[in-house]
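Hey team,

Sharing the Undecaprenyl-phosphate 4-deoxy-4-formamido-L-arabinose transferase run so nobody has to redo it. Sequence (323 residues) first:
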Amino acid sequence: MTANLATQASNPELSIVIPVYNEEDGLQALFDRLYPALDALASKRNLAYEVVFVNDGSKDRSAGILARQVELRPDVTRAVLFYSNFGQHMAIMAGFEYARGQYIITLDADLQNPPEEIDALTHELLNGHDYVGTIRADRRDSFFRKIASRAMNHLREKITRITMTDQGCMLRGYSRRIVDLVRQCDESNTFIPALGYTFSANPKEISVKHEERFAGESKYSLYQLIRLNFDLVTGFSVMPLQIFSILGMLLAMAAGSLFIHLLVRRFILGAEVEGVFTLFALTFFLIGVMLFGLGLLGEYIGRIYQQVRQRPRYVVQTVLEKK
Ligand code: UDP
Ligand code: MG
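Structure output:
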């Protein structure tokens, strides 16, 4: 493999950050498409690139495969290895720490984001947009994921000031300024595309292709998806808490009116014991609302607790790169 001259500079302009977690079956296919796409881009636009893989504590052979790739393309490849699994967003955060480019593009390792699209994102970044979001045309995920994701997009739109059409797509471009600001944020739970967006001055969205996962399964279980969405909600808005305060006030007023109504009936109609089951239903409903509110409060408090402990967000074992 002959590396393009432009790609050999030690100061790359374009950094591609890719989190990797148990992707042994798909990595080779990713390399086979990623490097030709980047080499073509580098000579077309005459800029140097680097790829920063972050192995998020994979338990399979991913780390070994990445190490071999660093040896094959040492001029443009670096791999950051974690000791254990810290999650996709922390892996990207570490990628940001080691990326040296003026333009940084994140990408999933499973080929759901076609590497050929990097060129379109680079184009927008070079045109002066400091944040390039993407919209997955014809998204290839399960029906459930698509519905849930649309609902979450909708909710986020209502309760935060972030306006992104498709928050979940990780194929995204950031300017150096935004990446530096994201790195300054010390949050232990975060959602990087949204965080980056809050700092953008000149964002742009483009439509990109989306493909089926090349190999393996999604690394997110339903539970983890719920956790991630709570990160998104709690990290960017306190409106859910305010909604609960208002709901509480409304319910208290309704209960007050009901009490007066019952009191008046007591004097007009005398003692009555009807509607016991209605009372049960109402009580259980209210207990449900209360538990949900308590849980929501817990989501915020749990995050505050994690934050005040100030444990390291991720621990880097080693960085594989050309010495
Ligand atoms: N990933 C990671 N750490 C994790 C989970 C996922 O680095 O704990 C990586 C994974 O290897 C992939 C990307 O994040 O490159 C997106 O994961 P996945 O494709 O499973 O998510 P989905 O596309 O189903 O949302
Ligand atoms: Mg995927």
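The chain has ten helices and eight strands.

Ping me if you want the raw files.
A.
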